[in-house]
């Protein structure tokens, strides 16, 4: 899983992408700046908005917080799970929250592994190979778009344009680029498989690297003062 903040040529947004070694690519998930329930939220979550190859949502600062992470799991990750999976996450605090890890393990049959800070450029397949190519394709499409079309008149048109650019650029990412990222990160799929070729993996108990949710911390402090 990879995040890219401020990918919009103008305006604030965060892009969440994820790939696996092979032909499978999950939909990009764009987080625009906006308040849930407001005009922008209604606009970007409409079925008619932007590219059908992209999912869209809003957050006040266009950031991946706890609610956005849960939304990504519910809308993007969980529907893709058809067996045991392993998900590589960086050390962003929300990734390491106990509730997020438990949601992935208990409801998505997903084992979570964390990449240590400072080495995502070496051990995160998306950062090693995919994101550089992906961003370059977005930039090329952006330049080409403006040689044939006028600049967007307002923020609403910029959001639509970004959605289409991201969708088209993501579709241009080839399987060999994904595979290259996993190979360079030395993350090769080996291990016991069942008769259908599916890996036999087992979930581990919740490790100490997970952090307690902020709400849970508040409850503990309140109990200690009673």
TrEMBL record:
Domain DDE-1: 22-182
InterPro entries: DDE_SF_endonuclease_dom
GO terms assigned for molecular function: nucleic acid binding
Protein name as it appears in the record: DDE-1 domain-containing protein
